[in-house]
Structures are given as structure tokens and as C-alpha cells.
Amino acid sequence: MSEPCDLTALEARALIGRKQLSASELLESCIRRIEQVNHAVNAVVATDFVRAREAAASVDRAVRSGEPIGPIAGLPVGIKDLEDTEGLVTTYGSPIFANHVPAQDERLVRAIRAAGGIILAKTNTPEFGAGANTRNAVYGATGNPFDPQKSAAGSSGGSAVALATGMIPLASGSDTGGSLRNPAAFCGIVGFRPTPGLVANEKRQLGWSPLAVTGPMARTVPDLALLLSVMASDDAADPLATTIHGCTVRDARHFFPPPTVDLARLKVALTSDFGFAPTERHIAEVFAEKAGHFRHVFARADDATPDCAGADKAFAVLRAVGFLASHLAKVRERRGEVGPNVVANVEEGLGYSAADVAEASVLQTVLYRRWQDFFREYDVLLSPAITISPRPWRELYPAEIDGKKTKNYFQWLALAYAVTLAGHPAISLPVGRDRAGMPFGLQIVGPRGGDAKVLAVAAALEAMLAGNPRTARPVPDITSLRAAPPLAESPGFLGFD
Hints:
Layout: H1 9-17, H2 23-41, E1 44-47, H3 49-65, E2 76-80, H4 107-114, E3 118-123, E4 143-144, E5 147-151, H5 157-164, E6 170-175, H6 181-187, E7 190-193, E8 213-218, H7 221-231, E9 243-244, E10 247-248, E11 267-270, H8 281-291, E12 300-303, H9 311-333, H10 340-350, H11 354-374, E13 380-384, E14 400-401, E15 404-405, H12 414-422, E16 426-433, E17 439-445, H13 451-465, H14 478-483
Parallel strand pairs: 2-3, 2-6, 11-12, 11-13
Antiparallel strand pairs: 1-3, 4-5, 6-8, 7-8, 7-16, 9-10, 13-17, 14-15, 16-17
Helix pairs in contact: 2-3, 5-6, 9-10, 9-11, 9-12
């Protein structure tokens, strides 16, 4: 290894437990990496070094005295700036909350602390998570670790970049239209959208809606499964967090370590577009090339897709309803302080009728049932994680793909939101680079409730592909990032457009 911060989370935790690496040494390594490269990418937007050092010292004392420590004890964690952290500024990427310091942690953060995780930093996000390009008017843009002038995607872009560059070994994220999976694909790390309710979320305005979830991000599948084992839990404040007779039906032990699977026994489907997504020809061709490295290992690998008719309309309406629930008052009362993505979604939502919402809900239900029929034939579904190769972050969203105009600012996320609508678990796994030299993400979608199956397949593929430079996880050039100019000096850095 070059630095302790470059270790996987599992490696670092094992060394801490064996007294071969102290939590303080790991923390200081992560802090140095932040200080060395964050200027080039702007992934970390707030830090808690003082309390993090106190927490690391506490872990070290526990290890020396032989006390039991938690599963992620001593591991620094980045928290997306949509999630409340007690005593540490949480802005949601909005000027309205530029100086907001929560009085308490939200459930997810409490669970991480209780498991021994050290909250080191907040990671950048677009305003209220709106959009898949991590830019805002509080902290500015986040650059891709493989080319800081290109987008890191979003809305968990800061977490993805911090992981890719070794600033942290674990991070939180959230996902509606791919906000975990898209940045994972663009930055060469792993992001997992779990089944709604698996990671309880007490903050969702529409508690019964399965669109928005929180989940783990990491550099490897086993690391991700470790964090998921900490995040997964029941919470009565979340209507989707299922409990039967006082016992959660989703036991964290099912996810870590990832279960083993014999790929040769699986039937898989492969699609570059789900039949409707505006996938760039370049990405479709790269997907076919990557699939050539692994499709032969399955019992059967068919080019097939579930029927996603109506997905565009259903997602547009239901997404807009979510924005009305969360942000209508802000747009009405403080419009000058709200960015264009949020305003556009709220205005779109105001244009829909109750009949439109009913139709969208029916379309989603029909799509879900088609997916259940499809997964009676297949174990998992494979696709690109995102429709395009990274573009400059100055482009708020792709207005065209292969010369054809996109319908709206989120249509380019269709490979992700098809899965969101169905409510199935999905992971973005890094599989080498595309022809532009940028990371390529493979999306692995499992059956209803098949979180463990997704992790098992992803872990098996990750291990199998790691030895081939064409399919192994790409790593950014840290030396170049250290020498790069501050991203904040770039034109258009601070703002929405």
C-alpha cells in the first residue's frame, strides 16, 4: 500500500483489531489525503477533525485494553450533506441552510457512530439532491477524480469522489433516480440502491413512497456490504421498514460477508437500454465489450429486458409529487434562493392533476408486475449503470445524446429510474474504463427483495474481473490531483448554471 487511507475498509479494520494499525494513524492518513487532493475535486465540504481525532483515540484505547469494538470501529466515514450530523454543518446544498448545524444526528448517522465509525466529513451534493450533477451555490462544483473538469454525477457525487481518491474508506449516499449508482459509475467505485425500507429513513416526506432510499458506498463490494450491515435496521418512523412480530425480516447477517454464489448456475439478462433509455452508442458498445469478458460464465446469458412502457411518464409525475411535498413552500416563499432544478420540478408538479398522479401510480404498479414476470425467468439483470460517459460539469444536464434532444433534465437517468420504479435492489460495479478513459459502471439488478443476491453476484464478478486491467476497478492518479489547480478557480464553479 502507498498510504493507510488506500487500504480497503476490511483491511484497515482487521489491522486495527490486530493492533497493527491504529485508528489514529488511519485517520491522519485520510486527513492528509483530503488536504492533498480535495482542492482539485471539491468532494469534502465540511470537516470534523477535532471530534474525529477524539473518536479515533477512544477506539485506540479500547483496542489496547482489550474491550470489544464495533464492526466499523476506527474507520473514517463521509456523510452526504443531505444527512443531519449533530454539531457539524449540514446545508443540503442550499443557501437557505448555509449555516445550519443540526442539534442531533439522524438515524443513519447514529447507527454508524454506534458501530464505531468515525464521522470525518460531509460530502458535496446538488441542492436538496436535485439533479445528477454535483453543483450548488454554497460549495460549488465537484470534479470527477479522473478529470476534474468533468462531472462526478450525483447526487452523491461528493461521496463517490472522496472514496475514489482515498479520502475516506466508507461513505453514505441516497438514491431516487440513480443518485448512488450514477456517481459510482462515473467515479469508479461501488454504490448500492437497497430495497426500499431495508435502510430505514425517518426523514422522507412521503413515507409510503419507495422512490427515495439511502444506502452505502465504498471502493469494493465486501466493504460496501460491511457498511450495509451497519445501516440496515428497522425503525417505526419509516412505514416501509418492515417488522414482523417485533423481528425485522431483513437480517444484516444476510449481507455481510456477501454470500457466495455459483455464477455458472445463474440465468442472466443483458440490456443496454431497457427498451427506452437514451443510451449513448459509445456506452452501448462498451457494455457489449465488457459483457464479452463475463457473459460466458453464466448458465445462460440472454439479450432481454423487462417491459418498461410508461416508465418516463410515471417517474416524471411521481418525482414531481415528491418535490411538491418537500419544496413547494421554499419555492413560493424564497424563490430567489432556490436553484433551477428544484424550481423546475415544483412547477412541473403544480401542472399535474390528481388524474395524472393516479395514472402514474397505476403505470408504476403495472411496470412492477411486469418485472415480477420477467424475474421468474432470470436471476439478475445486467445493464450499463448510466447512459453516457462523463461530460463537463458546466453542463447542468445533457441536453442531447448522440445528437437527439433529451425530453427533460433527468431523462438521461432512465437506466437508473427504471429500476427505481420497480423497487428492485441494484448496484453499480466498476468494470474498467470506457473509450474516453473514464470509469465504466455495470448495473446489476436483482429480483424483488434480492439484496443479498445482488451483493453475491457483484462480489463474484468483482473478484473474477479484478485481475484484468480492462475490467478491474480503475484508480485515479493521486499525484496529478495533488498538482492540479484548485477547482474553485474554474469559471462557473460556484452556482447552479
